[in-house]
Amino acid sequence: MVPTSMHLDVCVLRACVHVGISPPGIGLLPCVTHLARWTPNPFAMDHDDEQRGNSRITTGGPLLGAAKLYFLLAAYVTTLVLARVIDASTLGQYNVVARLIAVPNMVIVQTVMFAVSRPMAGQYDDGTPSYTALRRRGTRIALVLGGGASFVFFLAAPVLGEVLNDTDLVAPIRYVAPISAVYGLYAVNIGTLNATRRFTWQAALDIFMATSKAGLIIVGASLGLGLAMTIGGFTVAAALSLCLSVVFVWFNRPQKVVRPSAQAPPMAAFAGVLILFTLGMNLLLLVDLFVLKKYAVTDAQNHAVGLYSSAQLVALIPYSLMNAVSLVMFPLIATLSASKDTERIRRYVTETAKVTILLLALMAAVASASAYEIQELLFPAEYAAGASDLGLLVWGYSGYSFAVTSAWILNSSGRSKVAIGLVTVVLVTVATLTLLWVPEQGNRGAAMAVVVAGGVGVVVAFAALRGVFGARAPLPYLVKIVAATIAVVLLGQLWSAHGFVMIVAKLAAMTVVFVGIIWGSRAVTVAQLKELRRAG
């Protein structure tokens, strides 16, 4: 059964209960696992396959969602530990290199994984007759993309060091350059496990990758091995994960070989669209830090980059969590689009937009109103100076998140050109503004550029959803969201908390205020929840 949009409202209430208890956004685990439990395989299975596949989806879906959040949490823990082991300037260097290599890596992983998984999953009921052919094609794409990216990064390391005004980054960049090639091959195996519905095995790989990466990097930093050797732990973790993925795929290979009845489905065109889309998405998260580092010449400026990167880490929590939810929503929109039910699609996209706005407003309001407390809670004392950056960045990245979620909706419904155009508009805006403002204003200029670009993304995303689907957010609903947000921000200004207990109490109180206004104004109603239970 395809879940109705009402299922998302339960996720909102569950998220609201948990967000204030821990750093903003961490409590969204129940939301993602709940969505996964009600979501069909990302490559929708036929009714005749329910006997075989339902048990894997029911057990593997929530586990896969939990594994994705574990991966995210491990990355945050790594940076929080590093902030206590290395100085702020070195942390800034680490985050610049990590974000830099993340751009090609995420493009390669998502492109290869979906390019392999989508056509292979389409043959699942027929015994995946093109299993070997599709894996070979995927491997060729992985070697071209991943091998090419690794080669370019290795050779271009001195150039990148000069562009960033920091020749000390040359060695670290070269240490992580091989990851792109390794990730490409790893994505072939992940896509294979996903298409054949081995979600538990896929989740195990995510957990192993996250644990080994965090462990090796933290150990390297703790032993004082230097930035290059420390971040090289990421390369080692990627290689170990690739080896383990080979073993997992071998154990789950088809027991009976089915002779192909037709030529294997093409994947190059689909891969091309994914490359453009994911490249734009990931560049969005690099531009501000990249430009800031480029213009950091003095020790004080490099120290400021480290403070900015710490604020960026927290500000990206809403974006990261909503990106995970977007991947869960992707198959639902695709299924509805295939049904050609225009009115149902309009309602679902409208509800999705409303829920996305609600979640982002909650997380951004709490984080912005408690910026100093959060920096104090998570980082050493010197990082409190990054609170002003956090207060701005969390709004900007939340705007990014809404734009990217809308782009996923458009992409999943076959409007790839509109999705790419939406991301491009936001990317061009932030790139232009950072280049104009950072040289004179430093951190403040970068943060303001993100805020403006995020606002542009929200406006353009709303216009795209309305133009394509006829979706619109009712004005009374938006007014209720604004009222709850203002109340939280005012409370944050009036209440200054110190110490773990009081900070957590403040986060919880602001969450309760937001939820109370939303509930009291009937933005989310009991009737909706009852309808959800009947639908489930």
**DSSP E strands, number:** 0
Number of helices: 21
H/E series: HHHHHHHHHHHHHHHHHHHHH
Summed up, the domain count is: 2
Structure explained in plain terms:
With 536 residues, this protein is mainly α. It folds into 2 domains: 39-284, no CATH class; 285-536, no CATH class. The protein is 81% helix and 0% strand. The chain contains 21 helices and no strands. The protein has helices at residues 6-19, 29-38, 50-85, 88-122, 131-163, 170-176, 179-195, 199-222, 227-251, 268-284, 287-294, 299-315, 317-339, 342-369, 371-378, 387-412, 416-441, 443-469, 475-494, 500-520, 526-535. Helix 10 runs parallel beside helix 17 (416-441) and helix 15 (371-378) crosses helix 16. Residues 1-55 and 531-536 have low confidence and may be disordered.
Can I get a quick summary?
Helix content is 81%, strand content 0%.
Task: Give the topology, please.
Layout: H1 6-19, H2 29-38, H3 50-85, H4 88-122, H5 131-163, H6 170-176, H7 179-195, H8 199-222, H9 227-251, H10 268-284, H11 287-294, H12 299-315, H13 317-339, H14 342-369, H15 371-378, H16 387-412, H17 416-441, H18 443-469, H19 475-494, H20 500-520, H21 526-535
